[in-house]
Structures are given as C-alpha cells and as structure tokens.
Amino acid sequence: MSYEKHAADLMMKYPKVEDLAAKAQRRLPKVAWAYLVTGTGSENLIDRNIQSFKDVTLAPRFLKGELSPKLETQLFGRSYGFPFGIAPVGLTGLMWPEAEVIMAKSARKYKIPYALSTVATETPETIGPEVGDMGWFQLYAPRDLDLNKKLLDRAQTNGFHTLLITADVPTPSRRERTKRAGLNMPPKITPDLIWQGITHPRWTMATLKRGLPSLRTVNTYAEFKNMMSVGAFVRDRLGGNLSWDMCARIKEMWDGPVIIKGILHPEDAEKAISIGMDGIVVSNHGGRQFDGAPASMEVLPNIAKVVNGRIPIIMDSGVRTGLDILKAMALGADFCLLGRAFLFGVGALDKYGADHVVEILKDELINNMINLGIESLDEL
User: Fold this and answer.
1) Is 285 noted as a catalytic residue in this protein?
2) pLDDT at 230
C-alpha cells in the first residue's frame, strides 16, 4: 500500500519530526535507539546543535500579497526538489532493517540526494538501482589508495555521482551511551539483548528476515566475513590518516563533484577551496565525535563570509525542521543534510517513514516561507 493512502492520517498523528522520534523510541530496542541518538562524552554538543537553531530568529515581512514558495534547488549542476537531502549514517540497518533501501527510494521519488555511507549495511550495488540519479557516496578514506580506488569505482559504476569525504571522524569516538546499552563490535548475545528482542517483536522479525546487520560494503575486503574480522578491518584500514594531500588525490580519482564533510574553521574552508574541492559540509558529525566542538550553526556565518559564494556550503548537524533549514540558509548555507530525522521516520513508520519526513519538511518550508514573506530561497 502506498504512502499517499496514509498521508493525511499520518500528518495528523505525526505532524513533526519530534513526534516520529517519540514513536521510534517506543518501537526500537534500547541498543538501536542508543546508537541512533547517542553523542559522546556528556553529549553537550547534541544539545548545543539543537539550541543553536533556537537562538536564531528571522524577521517576517508582511503585506506581500499571495505567495507561492518555490523549493527546487540547484546544486553542483543538478536540480533537486528541495534544499535538503539525506545524510550518510553508518550501521543504518541496526536502526531498522533495510533502512537504506527505504531512504533511497524516497530520495528518488522526491528528487533529493541520499548519501550512502561506506559503513552502511547495504552495498552500492543494492542501493544504486533504488536511488537512481539521486545517489551520493560517503567515503571513509582507506589508508591505501588502491582500496580507495576500488570503493570509488564500485560507487561510480552503480550510479553514485557526488562524493562526500568525511573528515570529522579522525578516530572512533567513545560513545559511552551505546556501550551502556550493550552495543559491542562484534555483537555479544547477552540476556539483556535477548530481552530487548523479545520485547520489540516487529524490529526483531524484520531483522531476522533481512539478516543481522553487517557492514556489507566493506565485507568484501575483510579477511573473513564475521563481524570480528570486519570490525578489525574498519578499525585498522579505514580512516585515521586523512590529509589535505589525500583529499586532493581522491578528487583526481572521482569523476564528479567532491565535497569535504567536517569543516568547522574558516581557514579549513579556504584550504578546501585551494585544493579544488567542489563544496564543503559544515558539520560536527551530529555531536557524535568531539563533545567540545562548536555547534555547526555557530561557525556557519564566519565560514560563509570566507567562502563568499565560491563553492556551495552544506549544513549538517542538528537540523530537524523546515524552519531549521531556512535559518541555516539565512546564515549562509546553500543546502542542508539531515540524518537522524530520516531515521526517526523509518524507525517509527518503516516503509512510510522517509516519505513522511520529506512531507513534513516540505510543509514546514512552505508555511514558514509564506509567514516570512518570501517565495524564493534566494530571498533569505
């Protein structure tokens, strides 16, 4: 049954992303919910990310007559239906089985980008046909360039056209809450984990049907296919040595736009431009890496001032609403990425969830643009 048959009812029951988050928390076992919402340390940065949007206000201009907001956005020479896309998230299938497939289908339907993570639980070969020409690929750069090339070739062969190099994970963070929830790599079957499965039967049945979550893209390169071997491969072979020189070399391997994700300092934005990057993502990895970092919104204006329109700026970390998107664009962003919001939707409504998040954001964008007195995003 299609989402459209349920749309009015779902919009009445879940008119905000926060409502989907509340339902997802009830439907997901503790280990999956903790992985989705956790930060690191005391998790202060997650709160700062959210608060930084609340601290921004926009002055409405009334008496504009009838307004018809236009949401189509141009980015890297492509046309997208809205000024937002779906951010890359690793181990996505833990939060809901086949979550990547669900989000990829929504991305194609609504003409928004979906960024598949290197450490997702589905492969480029699976997601490429589902996402169509809306596919971006996120790279945790391997230590050797030969493996880099193999990953990039797989992504491009399967239709992914824009590359996101993630810089904001120089080392795995501690993420204490996930440890307390019982998430280990490799997973350990404990009485608590069994009880979580019993008390969340929909998630458990869907997981058993798809198979336990695994990092299927990188499984290919690990010595053995068990989670211990794959986990060791990720730890020892992916990331940890990313540099400006390596980013420049990766760009030479990719036929299409290349973006660095994880810029929080104006000088780094300038450096990204100097080595030929096509765009940057202002991101603190959703508050999941370094609890002492600034909120992305706090640094966005200074970065936008330095960039001065030379390359697109994409905003990430803490975006939850259509109004958040408008605020980010008013402060200098050209586009936004949302990760948790879409996974709240999938966790709450599974196959209908990503569609519903797009509809919520679209409705919020249109409503708030009319209230601001603008028809075009350029007017921000």
Assistant:
1) yes
2) 65
